[in-house]
Amino acid sequence: MLRRRPAISIGSNQEAIRKQSGSNQEATTHMRLIDGHTHVASTHFIPTEFMDGIVDNMMEQMHLSPVPVARERAMARLLAGYQDHDADIQVREMDKLGIEKSVLLLPDFTYALKGNAYTVDEMFARHWQILQRHPGRFEVFAGVDPRWGRDGLATFQRGVEQYGFRGLKLYPPCGYQADDPALTPFYEYCQEYHLPVLLHTGSTSPVLAFGPAVPMHVDGPARRYTNISFILAHGAVNYQEECVNLCRYRPNVYLDLSGAQWSAANPHHLADFLKLFSNGINHKIIFGTDWPINKYHLNSTMIDLLRSEDQGRPRVPVREAQLILAGNIERILAKARVARPAADGAAA
Ligand SMILES: [Zn+2]
């Protein structure tokens, strides 16, 4: 059913989706939204080298545009979107879209790249302050490059036990694979406390390596550490077939929808986007925006599609859509066996 070409054109006509939703709309308007993939939109947490690489690609893309923009202006425009240091704008945008909670992902670029404003410890403390500033609106999955060794592990443990962080964020393009032996003590800790591990998959800023970010590297750790929920970030669009297979056959592997906003809003890619939900893995798919890279308003079409009908039938069964939009990440978060710390950061 989901493979059928939709009767309405998407992207240009979101209102039509809402109207066509009919009786399903009643049930779906009550669907909860939890965003499983965001970042604080702040230059404090992203090195200048990373941003330089993004602008390099933007400048190449200018060849497609009839109106070229100077590099300085392109950079200024990019950085202007990364000044929400306390996540106040993010919370306002979440409210507009009806997102009750978001997972903040903090990758550690400090081992691989230059131009970091803060140390890992300082970035952890800043994220803890954001948790306190917006109670109940965020969870943090914090990253430490495993090559920082014992000190890095201590930092991560402090994040979990004193700051209340709820998962590990790994960024393999920094130069390590998901099955790198240096990750063993991190996985053992997450295994003991049932904490999730979210891994970037696929390409990124061109200053980093794409090769290590292949999803199949997670196969060994997922088999060994069965208490850990492994989330393949961007798995809906990067190496989709491999990610779907891992989700289908490894009980503890999941993928997120970050990046799929563009497929949902593009009529040429829409069929591929909808096909994802016919693989029998809707209990493994996690809604994620990748804010601030994808602004919240760009997600409306994707959310509407998950809540809408095609020729009188839900595109995705209502119960399964609710799992995707909130239930799956909520289930993963609920597995954590670590006490919430007191508000002053002391371990409970
Ligand atoms: Zn991201």
From TrEMBL:
| A single MF term (Gene Ontology) | hydrolase activity
The family database entries (Pfam families) matched by this protein are listed as: Amidohydro_2
Q: Does the keyword Zinc-finger apply?
A: no
Q: Which GO terms describe its cellular component?
A: cytoplasm
Gene3D superfamilies documented for this protein: Metal-dependent hydrolases (3.20.20.140)
Query: Which InterPro entries is this protein grouped with?
Result: ACMSD, Amidohydro-rel, Metal_Hydrolase
An example Gene Ontology biological process: secondary metabolic process
Q: Which CDD domains match?
A: metallo-dependent_hydrolases
Q: What is this protein called?
A: Amidohydrolase
Keywords (alphabetical) are: Hydrolase, Lyase
Where in this chain does the record put each Amidohydrolase-related domain? 34-333
